[in-house]
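F.,

This is the one I mentioned.
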């Protein structure tokens, strides 16, 4: 049995990619699950070139429960088992940025499937692949400060809030039965490694939304993820906000 792998959904790009690099830099074996094959292959190649770390990629649409179930069976057949599951896949649906009205039912469904249901499907089918013999076992969800403050994006925010509820109930269930810790990280605004993803490039305004006067880097989230799964082994059922004080600034404005 090949045990002690780290499984990262959404690991092909963005925060997920940064998390994959963080673990690779510490000599962990990695499995990346993503729907974007092209970006995933690039990430796998970059990790292998930089660190020489064993890293496998599996393509999957995590919003499709049957696909997730089949993938879990495939990975089990490949004799790969995990110490940590990091559920990072998700994003705001582009059409949801038009906030002149509530999101359509179609956009709502898309966002809930991507940002909430996919995390449950992943947890349900993959927690069985966590090696029970390991002393340190964990599941980590990447939620958002949108779950706790009104930053817009109705469906996305509702899904991310639901992810906190999922984390709390699953932490009680798996903690008692399997001694598995479950936590969530709530990032604030994160500067993408590819700057052109923010069309107006109005970084000065974005920086002012933080007490620390700067945006988080993807690596800030990755380092927090690593600490929660590897070092801080008495923490479970917690939401860790990584926003430089963004939610505090918003509370003062309100």
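My design for it:
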């Amino acid at each position: 049995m090949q045990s002690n792998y780290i499984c990262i959904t959404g690991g092909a790009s963005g925060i997920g990619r940064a998390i994959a690099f963080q673990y690779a830099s510490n000599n962990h074996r990695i499995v990346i699950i993503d729907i974007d094959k092209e970006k995933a292959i690039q990430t796998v190649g970059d990790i292998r070139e930089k660190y020489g770390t064993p890293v496998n990629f599996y393509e999957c649409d995590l919003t499709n429960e049957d696909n997730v179930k089949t993938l879990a069976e495939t990975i089990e057949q490949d004799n790969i088992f995990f110490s940590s599951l990091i559920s990072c896949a998700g994003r705001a649906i582009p059409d949801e940025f038009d906030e002149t009205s509530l999101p359509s039912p179609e956009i709502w469904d898309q966002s809930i499937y991507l940002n909430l249901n996919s995390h449950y499907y992943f947890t349900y089918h993959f927690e069985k692949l966590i090696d029970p013999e390991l002393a340190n076992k964990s599941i980590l969800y990447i939620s958002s400060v949108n779950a706790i403050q009104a930053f817009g994006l109705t469906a996305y925010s509702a899904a991310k809030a639901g992810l906190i509820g999922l984390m709390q109930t699953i932490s009680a269930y798996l903690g008692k039965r399997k001694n598995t810790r479950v936590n969530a990280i709530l990032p604030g605004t994160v500067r993408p490694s590819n700057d052109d993803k923010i069309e107006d490039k109005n970084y000065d305004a974005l920086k002012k939304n933080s007490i620390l006067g700067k945006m988080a880097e993807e690596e800030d989230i990755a380092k927090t993820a690593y600490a929660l799964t590897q070092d801080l082994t008495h923490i479970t059922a917690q939401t860790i906000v990584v926003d430089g004080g963004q939610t505090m600034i918003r509370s003062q404005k309100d």
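Residues 5-245 form a domain with the Rossmann fold fold (CATH 3.40.50.720).

Talk soon.
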